[in-house]
Amino acid sequence: MSSKLDQLTGWLKERKITEVECLISDLTGIARGKISPTNKFLDEKGMRLPESVLLQTVTGDYVEDDIYYELLDPADIDMFCRPDPDAVFLVPWAIEPTAQVIHDTYDKMGNPIEISPRNILKRVLKMYADKGWQPIVAPEMEFYLTKRCEDPDLPFQPPIGRSGRQETGRQSFSIDAANEFDPLFEDMYDWCEAQGLDLDTLIHEEGTAQMEINFRHGEALHLADQILVFKRTMREAALKHNVAATFMAKPMTGEPGSAMHLHQSVVDETGRNIFSNSDGTMSQLFLHHVGGLQKYIPELLPLFAPNVNSFRRFLPDTSAPVNVEWGEENRTVGLRVPDSDPQNRRVENRLPGADANPYLAIAASLLCGYIGMIEELPPSQPVKGRGYERRNLRLPLTLEAALERMESCRQLEKYLSPKFITGYVAVKRAEQENYHRVISSWEREFLMLSV
Known about the structure:
By secondary structure, the chain is an alpha+beta fold. It has helices at about 1-15, 40-45, 65-70, 115-130, 175-180, 180-195, 220-240, 285-295, 300-305, 360-375, 400-410, 420-435, 440-445; strands at about 20-25, 30-35, 45-50, 80-90, 100-105, 135-145, 200-205, 210-215, 220, 245, 260-265, 325-330, 335, 345-350. Helices cover about 35% and strands about 20% of the residues.
């Protein structure tokens, strides 16, 4: 590790970095941490943050006291955050030369903090490594561009492009519609290249001003780091061009939701894809992997759909799958198996929302498949044709129901820390309670003078 830290020191000095953003991800996927002068960062080689940062909600509130004190020291002690030399990125939009460094979290005895999202993903990856396996993932990130708006009570509107007009109608895969925002995407690509992000293609998705960025396949932890950085980068590029980028799962009424599709496969120590037999057919491990996804995604759904808004993606006629059926070359089911050669055989989990914490969504998706392989779980019969209306393998349709299911699934405690499950469910329940305290425009419009 010391040699890697030396490489990090050299990297910062070579680029004349004057400030370092020291980051961790909280449970909601928000980057939290400190901004440090480079000299201080190099002297301390880490930072301290209150443990309570990991139990903050998206609104900045905390969980109820009884859960808080069950999971954390009542004295609100610090955790120790150490930089990962393999998770260092420039901040190209900063005025001064600045870097962002993702940190791992530990207690004072050097043990990984159990409720840290990055540590959860590392825990799952170790399970694979202990079997001689390495997961390979390729995320696809959907998002919307919108007009900037200061009033949260007003609906989002599509932004004005180079033509001076707002986009109207569905423009799936339209090159010209994507080119409306060329200056923005040129900055985004330049900044991502400067940060070493493994972007592949840009696509105009189905929704109005909805886009998708595909990442090249690679190692799971590195890609989770990249998604955290990419979201910050995309928002900054949008702000520079006086529009907004949102990764909400369902930001606009009547428009499709935004997903974080996850392609995943597994290779052995020789690099061979264990999802294929030597004759090129589907292996039993692949079928068990799919079986695990089918059985456990509904139990871990809050990690894929973490917010009240997430479940609006799963309403009827929203273009999103609402079950864990599987099928080959079938986009109407939750688990799609793309047509590919045997070495590239993979399954695409189409259920995570763009609003999901990347560490937790990738960890959960890989964990479901891992359990399936370990417990030799059989999949259902693959679906041919339209799968939206299939009801046998439906998902919980509200956050309340999903949290109850996750909390009551005792099998998960064998693989995930009970502390993490308790903490995550508590954070999401606190957010849900906060949401229920807000009166919506729908209630004012339809109930004010009618009931």
